[in-house]
């Protein structure tokens, strides 16, 4: 392609692409230069948030795409669509419309692989826009089709997105089933580190949501964090690190969470809003301060309240913090008025009374409620009675001695 690159020839006029790429040229070097020029211009338009120009460029590169192999064309189109979809502040309907336009063109040109690739991207877009039912409808059709053609790489991606949609709709069982399908398929082929990390993140999320197994969830998040960090995917690595810290807090190990934020693992992310938010939550848990916990959730709204995973655990976190606060307040007393506790904690008396009753039943502390007097009696923790265990150990030891004596006596005979 003489006369310089596309950028030099056209500047910011992507509608001239149809003229530049209308002529067929089978030179590999020339085709490669054209591909690089298209992506160069696409990145520039995306950086300048020129959505309309980028969409026109995608449309006008189609004659050139017909000269490429199906795999190359699919990659180029998807990269351009990704650039357009990643522009912030764009209306979700416009993004969906772009994907559907490209899917329709792929169908008209009988580009099956390209159409399937774009449909997979549309499913992810539906999930990003919280349109989970639409994502599931399309994923269900595409999974059946991909299983027939045995396209394992794309099948893994679609089943992962299907699992995410089920999770956000509250169907944990189906979410786990879809993830199992994706992981089973992944075991049969080579999977890119980034995709393996995405599978690990989803596995960690489901372990935390389904079985409340935060220890296993932490190990999955840690694997994902290492993979993202090693491939310089800083944003995704930060998300995995945030969920690692969440697991430590949910395991009632706030000191370990704080230590993690100050250690070697998180040194490149220490100043991020996400890490600062989780560190503040860990400090509130350590200090058993419900006030600090609530103020942290209010201050770091984007990182905490807007995160769907943390949001799902907010109620449990709040209940735990309330219990910690109540335990801290009643520690100095053997007898205290419930009204006094409610006043300090700034909560309704009836709510505090119900929570204290529940904590007594759950053996979070030893005490009794006297509702007529409005009093809480707190008992000192009982020392465990080791008499039975000691006696049992003695009997076992005595039995061992008798067995040894019997064996020696048998030898003497």
Automatic annotation (TrEMBL):
**Residue ranges occupied by any PCI domain in the UniProt entry:** 213-383
Q: Which SUPFAM superfamilies match?
A: TPR-like, Winged helix' DNA-binding domain
Q: Which domain of life is it from?
A: Eukaryota
- Lipid metabolism recorded as keyword: no
* This protein's record includes keyword Protease: no
Q: Which Pfam families match?
A: PCI, RPN6_N
InterPro entries attached to this UniProt entry: 26S_Proteasome/COP9_Components (IPR050871), PCI_dom (IPR000717), Rpn6_N (IPR040773), TPR-like_helical_dom_sf (IPR011990), WH_DNA-bd_sf (IPR036390)
Keywords from the named record: Proteasome
Give the family, as the similarity comment puts it.
Belongs to the proteasome subunit S9 family.
**Official protein name in the record:** PCI domain-containing protein
Q: Which organism is this protein's natural source?
A: Mesorhabditis spiculigera
GO cellular component terms, alphabetically, are: proteasome complex
Q: What is known about its subunit structure?
A: Component of the lid subcomplex of the 19S proteasome regulatory particle complex (also named PA700 complex). The 26S proteasome consists of a 20S proteasome core and two 19S regulatory subunits.
